[in-house]
Structure formats: structure tokens, C-alpha cells
Amino acid sequence: MGIKWRHWALPTALLALALPTATGCEGTPGTRPKPAAVPSTPVARVCARPASGPAKAPAGAVPVDPAVAGDLAAKTRNSPPNTTFWLRPGRHRLKADRYAQVVPKKGDVYLGAPGAVLDGRRTNQYAFGGTAPGVSIRYLTVQRFVAPRDEGVVNHDSADGWVIEHSTIQNNSGAGLMAGADQRIRANCLRGNGQYGLNAYKATGRVRDLVLEGNEITGNNTDGWERRRPGCGCTGGAKFWAVDGADVSGNWVHDNRGTGLWADTDNNDFLIEGNLIEANDGAALIYETSYNAVIRDNRIRRNNWVEGRRYADRGDSFPLATVYLSESGGEPRVRARTDKIEIRGNLLEDNWSGITLWENADRFCNSPANTSSGDCTLLVDKTRRCAQPAIGRAPLYADCRWRTQRVDIHDNRFVLDKSVVDCTVKCDRMAVLANYGTYPDWSPYQGDRVAEAITFKQHNRWHDNIYVGPWRFVAHDPSRILDSAQWQGAPYQQDAGSTFRAREGG
């Protein structure tokens, strides 16, 4: 967690809502694909235009009365599993107890009528909790609950198989929504929550087969947790922990007070596709200590202005990126749809810097400098194995590290106009680098071993991209700043087949 470097396909129903007409990026057989025509308008305007639920109770549904405090929780307790509840129009309340949540049974369905709101009144911590699988919540506004930091309001206990659709989850503390395995999160407005819009995390085990599709995720981290706990790595529009298999598509992720999408610690097998990610204070996307992903056909614009400028103003030389891969790469031994990280067909436009591939020489399993303390790579079963003398030899020398390797960056378009970003320096970087290893004293990765590996030996490659604007490149360590000719020349030999222009049309 944290980013300091010194120490260490859409369903038909959603397609009309989500995506303007766009051509694909595959091209014809035998030709190189061209950068895709990615979305140019917001892909999921669900906060301004939320869908309406049923105006009448469906057959067999249990009506819930907003005039009776606690009616929803009580009727849930007194009904069998697989019951459908229809919340009448109006403001629904729970009992005036901070733990007075709704605890669904298996297969329960909650439908909000037009204007149905479940309001925590800044009193209740959680809206829906418990471990029952297969719960559905649709067309309901959930607001003003006060979950503690790192906890969530809807699906508080990360139960499996929940479906959350066409709902507005807003103005809560903590995370608006938690995610368990086999969860479907579609066409929701996740807005103005104190920490995260979504926190995909299970206290035990992994979150598997997660779908996040056609949502608007905006204005989250209103409580400013990165300022309250510097370096906590505990904010974002959406945060993912130990997720195995996630499709993140057609979302509009914007104006979050921090990172837009952040996958942190032993995630694997992500498809991040067709999203519009814009105007977030921090990076559009961080993929950290994780594995195997396809990041394609996204439009990523005007991100990282706040945090990038903060770094620059304090004199930090690190190339703080808009797409930041930190100790993450392709790993064929971890089963996934791909065995690399492929970044292709994206448009990055007027962000603070571009893509940084980073590997902290001092961060590895069992190192005191590992900010994901207690976690190990997916290649080592027991953390204590990563110790001297065994860590200095194969296979643990490689397997105890989260390695930034097998990253393939191609057929993207990188556009930078410094007059738009309002910067003169340090907002124009593309980078592959590591720090000089120093810590701990028993580390086998001291010196420039990791910097040499990430730059020259781990199959990280840029090629066939289009650059517009005054781009610079950083290789090996923060002190090596290159122009395009040096970047393409020996010994780096990056961006074969790419084009460089000073301005549009140039």
C-alpha cells in the first residue's frame, strides 16, 4: 500500500447507456492494430439520470413502509429466504442504534420504488450486512451511514453472489459498498463517500469473479484519508484487494479525491476496458503488487493534477504517473486469461505524466519495507521462507519478489499540452525504474540489481505508440531523463515503431 518510492463485453441493456459508437482496435488480419476510438463522452451518467424502480409492488413482494422506523429490518427477520421486498416511495429509517442494520437471508431481493431512500441519518453504521449469499439490491438510494474506516455500508461483510444494480450509494462514511466473490455491480452511482465508493475486500480468502460495469464512481474520499494518515494507501474511487478475476468495464470514474481505480496486493486477472477515467486528484489507475491484466480501450484524461503538482512542488524527482504499475507484472505460473500485463488501445490525454513501471528494490515478501505487511507473493506459501540464506538462491530469489515484468505497452495514444495541464516540468514523464537497494541488511537485492532487471531483463516493452507533445522518458533510476531518440536508442531500445510529434497535426 502507498506509493512512496524511497524505501522500498457489456450486456445489451447497458450498452445503450454506456458507450458511444466506437470502432475496435483489432484491425484486419495481417495488419497492426490502430489505437482504438475510445469513448469521448461520459460512459455512465447514472448519477444525473438514475433508473427508476417499479412504481407498484411486484406480485408476491412484501411492501415496506417508510413511516415505520425499522420496518425493513423487521420484515427481513420475519420473512423466509428468497423474499422480495418493495420499499415504498419515501425516506426509510432503521432503529436509532448504530448497529441496527438489515441482515438479509439467502436470495432476498430489495427493490426501491421511485423516490425510495434508506437513510442512516448519520446514526447507523451499516445498511446491509451478514453472510447470506445471492442477495440483490436494485433501484434504491442508500445514504448517510457512518461506517468506520476500511468498513462498508452495503454488503458490510463481503458476502458472496450479491447483485447491486441501478442504485445510488452516496454520502456515507467508510466505503459505500463492499464486494464479495461472484458479485455483480452494474449501473450504480457511487458518489461522495468518505473513503471509497467500492472496497473489494474479504477478511478471509479471496474475492473471485467480480464484475464492475457501467457505474459512475465520483467524488469519493470526502474525508481525506491520505492527508489524515499519510501513506496509508487507503482511498480511491474503487479499491481492490486480493481479487482473482475482475471485469471493470464501461464505468465513468471521475473527480475522486485521490486515485480512480486502485488494485493493491495480490490481485490477478483483471480486464479494465472501455472506461472513461478523468479528473481524479491522483492517478487514474494504480496496479500494485499484483499480476496479469489487460488494460485496453480506455480514455484517461486530466488525472493526477493535484497529487502530481504536490510532488513536484516539494522537489520530489519520482515520475508520479497517471497509470502506475508498482511491483506488478505478468506471471505465467499464476493462472489467468493472460500471462502478461498488456496496456493497449488507450488514449491518455493531458494527464500529469503517463505510465510508470516501478519496482522497489527493498520491497519483497518478509521485508520490513513491505508496506503490505504480512502479505507474500502468490508464488510462496509461507512468508517465513523468504529469509536468508534461502532467499539468495533460486527459486526464492525470484519468487519472494513482486516483479514488474512482462509489461507490453502498445498502440496507445499519449497526448500532452502543458498549457492545459498548467505545468512546466515533471508532468511529461514515461518511466521504467527502480531505486538503489539498501534495506534490510540481509536483502539479496541490494545495489542496482533490481534497476538493471526492470530496465533490461524483465521483458518490459513500449512499442507502436503515438506521442503528441513534449514527452520525456526516465529509465533505470530517477536521474536518467531521456529524450525520445535516447529512449529508442541503445541500450534501452524502447518504443520501436512509435511516432513522436510536437503537437497535433505536426
What does this protein look like?
With 506 residues, the protein is mainly beta. The chain has a domain at 282-506. The protein is built from 8 helices and 37 strands. The strands form 3 sheets. The chain has a 13-stranded parallel β-sheet with strand order 1-2-4-6-9-12-15-18-21-24-27-30-33, with helices on one face. It has a 13-stranded parallel β-sheet with strand order 3-5-7-10-13-16-19-22-25-28-31-34-37, with no helix packed on it. It has an 11-stranded mixed β-sheet with strand order 8-11-14-17-20-23-26-29-32-35-36. The chain is globular. It comes from Streptomyces lucensis JCM 4490. This is Lipoprotein. Residues 1-24 form the signal peptide. Keywords: Lipoprotein, Repeat, Signal.
Strand order of the largest sheet: 1-2-4-6-9-12-15-18-21-24-27-30-33
Largest sheet: 13 strands, parallel
Which structural class is indicated by helix and strand composition?
mainly beta
The stretches of 5 or more residues where confidence is low (pLDDT under 50) are 1-33
- Percent of residues in beta strands? 25-35%
Radius of gyration: 23 Å
Helix content: under 10%
DSSP E strands, number: 37
For the terminal residues, how far apart are their CA atoms? 41 Å
Q: What is the count of helical runs? A: 8
Return the average pLDDT rounded to an integer.
92
Q: Rough shape?
A: globular
